[in-house]
Amino acid sequence: MLTLAPSVVEAVVGGLLRGVDVDEGPTSEQVLVLEALATHLWGRPDLDVRSVTRLKASEVASVLAGEDVRAVFHELHLTLEACRHPQSPAQVAAVQEYAEILGVDSEDLKIFRDLVQGGVEMAKRDYQRFLSNNMRQRSEPGLSDPNLSRPFREAQLSDLFGTLAEYGPGTLGRAYLSFYERFGLSLPGTESSSNDSFFVAHDMTHTIAGLSTTPEAELALSAFQFGMNNNAVNRAALLASLVVHEAGFAVPSHLKRSESGLLARPAAAKLFANELSRGNQCRSDFSLVDHFALAHHPISEVRAEFGVLPPNIQSDRHHWW
Asked: What confidence score (pLDDT) does residue 107 get?
């Protein structure tokens, strides 16, 4: 969970601040995102993040004893790392130092290290290998059988979607189909792709969370998932999204382009922090449950079951509720 004891919030912010205080100091974007985290995730709008006491990695380690909370620190440090443009060896080295002392190991360490040491092409290859594995891990339960040939997968999906269409208004199944209509997307299985089962789970998560398909919302969705459950799969999902929508040095095959510096926009940084908080308030993680087994239930009941709260603003282009 991302909730911190009030007594350690300032220490965590101080560690994150020192962890980006490299080269000429933290960038304006890094400070903006850190301020958004302090305000909207931890409820400390009074905190002047520029003036908090900066903590070394060993000092952070003495404050954060648990493995989970150390992983949270690292992922937020990773988020701030991705917000430095251009990326620098000093920033990568700082994240590596904190990770080693906190006992955290993750894919991002290699990807960003190779980015500054070997260049963009090497980092892209790292990312594509990592992304392929992560998308398999995030596949819809029951649809990820690698032994099914494409025609059988397409027929399976067609039958399932036909069943969803029979459910009444207000059900999860009908809302899921409406998601594709609203945003002009093709249903999984209608285009040549080996990632249909990933998109089913991903778009069911969009539907239940009530997040749209803007770049800001895609990044916020990965934050929401990390807030629900900071397990290895969701940490990898956050990394995948940060590379595409913030660091901007790689793009998966299903997207036309990547983004760079997305969180430099105050509204995007606020959305990111708010969705971290909203995901953190969920009772359990719904991103990889059997969504088809829930599809006949009213979406309001599904959201209530998992504790999905309405977004603060429901009528902006980043949400649909």
From this structure: 85
Give the amino acid at 126.
D
Q: Which of 33-42, 124-133, 281-290 has the lowest mean pLDDT?
A: 124-133
| pLDDT in the model for residue 192 | 61
Asked if residue 86 has a cis previous peptide bond (ω within 30° of 0), the answer is yes
Question: Which pTM does this prediction carry?
Answer: 0.94
For 177, the token pair is 């189909």
Q: How far is CA 67 from the centre of its chain?
A: 20
Cβ-in-10-Å burial (0-12, 13-18, 19+) of 296 comes to: middle
Structure tokens, 36? 């958004």
Q: What is the three-state SS of the chain?
A: CCCCCHHHHHHHHHHHHHHCCCCCCCCHHHHHHHHHHHHHHCCCCCCCCCCCCCCCHHHHHHHCCCHHHHHHHHHHHHHHHHCCCCCCHHHHHHHHHHHHHHCCCCHHHHHHHHHHHHCHHHHHHHHHHHHHHHHHHCCCCCCCCCCCCHHHHHHHHHHHHHHHHHCCCCEHHHHHHHHHHHHCCCCCCCCCCCCHHHHHHHHHHHHHHCECCCHHHHHHHHHHHHHHCCCHHHHHHHHHHHHHHHHCCCCCCCCCCCCCCHHHCHHHHHHHHHHHHHHHCCCCCCCCCCHHHHCCCEHHHHHHHHCCCCCCCCCCCCECC
* Phi-psi group of 170: left, alpha or beta (phi > 0 → left; psi -120 to 50 → alpha; rest → beta): left
| Token pair listed for 127 | 């990312």
- pLDDT number for residue 118: 95
d(CA 77, CA 13): 10
